[in-house]
Design goal:
The protein is an all-alpha fold. It has 5 helices and no strands. The longest helix is centred in the middle third of the chain and has 17 residues.
Amino acid sequence: MAISLVTPTGGEADLERGNAIFEDVMKDENTDGHLRGMAAAALADSSRLGRGMQADISRALSLYEQAIELGHKGSAHNLGLFWEGAWGVEDGSVIPDR
């Protein structure tokens, strides 16, 4: 979503700027809950994968929970993968979406 907005044609994505846009969406109380849920899910993915930010599993979990509360159903799947041990949490590594 926001990542594609900050990717020049044929160039590298500015992941940090994309994450900043998601953060702004999360802070805006007037933004529709569904859109805020998608932003929370995208930030959770970035936090889990270290995409444009330092990987932080605790933050990813919190953001997935927020996304679920805001109606983002896919985040429940990602959170389930964590609880099933499918993220590689034991050794601190992260795995990409399946």
